[in-house]
Amino acid sequence: MPYDPAVHHRRSIRPRGYDYAQNGAYFVTVCTHAHACLFGAVENGAVSLSALGAVIERLWEKLAVPAAGVFLDEFVVMPNHFHGIIVIGRTASPSKVADPRVAAVRSAALSGTVPGSFPAIVQTFKSVSTRRAHGMGLNAALLLWQRNYYEHVIRDEPELTRIRQYIVENPMRWELDRYHPARLGGQSVR
Questions:
Q1: Contact 56, 130 (CB under 8 A)
Q2: CATH code: domain of residue 33
Q3: Residue 118, in any domain of the structure
Q4: How far is CA 124 from CA 21, 119, 128, 158, 190, in A?
């Protein structure tokens, strides 16, 4: 079915007017299309990555560009999703978390994704990893990722600490995870 803006409404979860290119720490969760378990399995509370899962992990690590002020904090590749923290700023110190009161002051004429911004980094990750997955044999007609992703602007140190803990403990809580195949009705296998 072709896109029809009168029918297909994409509701943004992003705070209106927020400048995602500003310094700060950002949490992201990206899920595979149809929650397919493509990246490995969880055994005894630890993730055992598939070949594709290992590629996803390496591609994420390559997103760090200290010269451009892009740093990575905690992250984990799960069987059918990915969690990570991206820090944008002059230093890798995530203590310089985003100030939610700072609004975008970009020209109304500026459209599209701002280079170096959090959305641009996530788009790059999804795009490059999709090409790599297709190069590894994933059917080109199949999608690797869901259309959108979950994001959260990390506002302070206690929140950063909680999110880090969530990421680190995610494999140990796989059976309770909202993306676990059993909780999704077994619909996560292609």
A1: no
A2: 3.30.70.1290
A3: yes
A4: 15, 9, 6, 29, 25
* Chain segment 35-57, per-residue pLDDT in tens: 999 999 999 999 999 999 999 99
* Host domain of residue 90: 24-100+114-171
Per-residue pLDDT for 189 more than 90? Answer: no
The tokens for 102 are 């700072």
Asked if residue 142 belongs to a domain, the reply is: yes
**Distances, alpha carbon 64 to alpha carbons 11, 52, 84, 86, 125, in Å:** 29, 20, 12, 9, 11
Q: Would residue 89 count as lying in a domain? A: yes
Q: Identify the bridge partners of residue 41 per DSSP, sorted by sequence position.
A: 48
pLDDT for position 128:
95
Q: Contacts for 111-117 with beta carbons within 8 Å, 24 or more apart?
A: 114/20, 114/21, 116/21, 116/68, 116/69, 116/70, 116/88, 117/19, 117/20, 117/21, 117/88
Instruction: Please give the sequence-ordered ranges of beta strands (E in DSSP) within the chain, or none if there are none.
Output: 24-31, 40-43, 46-49, 70-77, 81-88, 150-154
Q: How many domains does the chain divide into?
A: 1
Instruction: Please give the residue that has the higher pLDDT: either 13 or 102.
Output: 13
In a domain, residue 127? The reply is yes
Contact 79, 31 (CB under 8 A): no
Are 59 and 132 in contact, with CB atoms under 8 Å apart? Answer: yes
